[in-house]
């Protein structure tokens, strides 16, 4: 697969709009491509996701990527220029999808092209496709990592804390109790929390608790009778839901904590023999993933998985987003060696 072929394929993909919940055109094209190359009997469709089944027996390696993007910026260029492919989703993650398609045309693997990754977690289309796939020995998620192997991922817990006050007219605040002021001790306590460093298989993760939203529902000429805080706790692999909730409750002692949602951390899989040998032979850089990714959904189902993609993480969701052609080519070469190892 030549550099120009990979670049051209990436350009074709970014030229097809596929904003979250609007992936159907690209999904239809992906399904047509898959059926043309592998036959309809090896292709499955769920909503706007496409699964390519392997030809031979296991063990099976899966290449995993999402088809959707965030909405494009105004004036977003779509072109090949100066060694880069420009377009919405170029790095996140249509360069990775281009590599997946090129690899599947040459080698036997499972291809998982899913929808709605950029949207609400309960709409994510990965798991229904995994349920139709054969047993997987290893999965590579081609999210943008600049060709670093990113292992594991932090989990995420969102919680709501409501600080009570007493409503009053803002001209007579002494008749009430301002919920914003009542929340100051808690906010100071949370602001003083230090990140907690956790080592997992030699990789460093940081556990952090952050106030991400603070809202009142009162009119602007009234003393607020409630301040609602959203807290987001990011935690290292190995911590379960109860333990994560306990950490938040302890930090908010004296206040009622309501759990809103929970996404498990992704396991670190550096002890997988196929993965370990490949990383060493290719001289790849290994880093921890200080964010949540769908690696967590894979490892929760018992599938060892890492992020390894050609996109540039800093380009994700940016106006003028691009992906380096040289990085796309290097990603293809490295993954071809993994598949054939």
Concise summary:
The protein is α+β, with helices and mostly antiparallel strands and 341 residues long. The protein is built from ten helices and 18 strands. Strands 1-2-6-3-7-17-8-16 form an eight-stranded mixed sheet. A five-stranded antiparallel sheet has the order 11-12-14-9-15.
Structure description:
There is one protein chain. This protein is α+β, with helices and mostly antiparallel strands and 341 residues long. It folds into 2 domains: 3-153 and 266-340, Zn peptidases (Aminopeptidase); 155-263, Alpha-Beta Plaits. It contains 10 helices and 18 strands. It has helices spanning 3-14, 24-38, 90-106, 126-130, 179-182, 184-191, 241-251, 273-282, 295-300, 325-340; strands at 43-46, 49-52, 60-66, 79-81, 84-86, 110-114, 136-141, 149-151, 155-164, 168-169, 196-200, 203-215, 222-223, 226-235, 257-263, 286-288, 305-307, 322-324. The strands form 4 sheets. An 8-stranded mixed sheet has the order 1-2-6-3-7-17-8-16. A 5-stranded antiparallel sheet has the order 11-12-14-9-15. Strands 4-5-18 form a 3-stranded antiparallel sheet. A hairpin with a 2-residue loop joins β11 and β12. α1 (3-14) crosses α3, α1 (3-14) crosses α10 (325-340) and α3 packs across α10.
Fraction in helix: 25-40%
Major sheet characteristics: 8 strands, mixed
Total helical segments: 10
Tally of discrete structural domains: 2
Instruction: Look up the CATH topology of the largest domain.
Output: Aminopeptidase
Listing every helix as H and every strand as E from the N terminus to the C terminus, the arrangement reads HHEEEEEHEHEEEEHHEEEEHEHEHEEH
Spatial sequence of strands, sheet with the most strands: 1-2-6-3-7-17-8-16
The mean pLDDT is 96
Number of E strands: 18
> What Rg, in angstroms, do the CA atoms define?
23 Å
In angstroms, what separates the terminal alpha carbons?
Answer: 18 Å
């Amino acid at each position: 697969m030549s550099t120009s072929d990979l670049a051209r394929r990436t350009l074709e993909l970014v030229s097809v709009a596929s904003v979250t919940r609007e992936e159907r055109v690209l999904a239809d094209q992906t399904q047509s491509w898959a059926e043309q190359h592998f036959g309809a009997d090896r292709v499955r469709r769920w909503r706007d996701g496409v699964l390519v089944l392997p030809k031979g027996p296991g063990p099976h390696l899966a290449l995993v990527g999402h088809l959707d993007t965030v909405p494009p910026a105004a004036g977003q260029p779509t072109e090949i220029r100066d060694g880069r492919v420009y377009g919405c989703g170029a790095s996140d993650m249509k360069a990775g999808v281009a590599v997946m398609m090129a690899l599947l045309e040459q080698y036997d693997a499972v291809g998982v092209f899913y929808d709605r990754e950029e949207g609400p977690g309960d709409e994510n289309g990965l798991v229904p496709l995994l349920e139709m796939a054969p047993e997987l020995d290893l999965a590579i998620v081609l999210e943008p990592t600049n060709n670093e192997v990113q292992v594991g991922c932090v989990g995420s817990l969102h919680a709501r804390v409501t600080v009570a006050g007493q409503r009053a007219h803002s001209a007579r605040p002494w008749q009430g109790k301002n919920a914003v002021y009542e929340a100051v001790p808690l906010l100071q306590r949370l602001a003083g929390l230090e990140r907690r460093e956790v080592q997992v298989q030699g990789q460093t993760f940081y556990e952090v608790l952050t106030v991400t939203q603070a809202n009142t529902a009162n009119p602007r000429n009234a003393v607020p009778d409630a301040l609602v805080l959203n807290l987001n706790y990011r935690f290292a692999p190995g911590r379960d839901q109860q333990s994560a909730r306990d950490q938040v409750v302890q930090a908010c002692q004296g206040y009622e904590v309501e759990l809103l949602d929970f996404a498990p951390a992704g396991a670190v899989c550096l002890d997988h023999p196929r993965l370990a040998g490949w990383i060493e032979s290719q001289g790849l850089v290994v880093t921890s993933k200080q964010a949540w990714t769908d690696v967590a959904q894979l490892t929760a189902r018992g599938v060892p998985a890492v992020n390894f993609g050609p996109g540039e993480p800093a380009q994700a969701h940016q106006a003028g987003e691009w992906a380096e052609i040289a990085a796309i080519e290097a990603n293809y070469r490295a993954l071809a060696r993994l598949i054939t190892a």
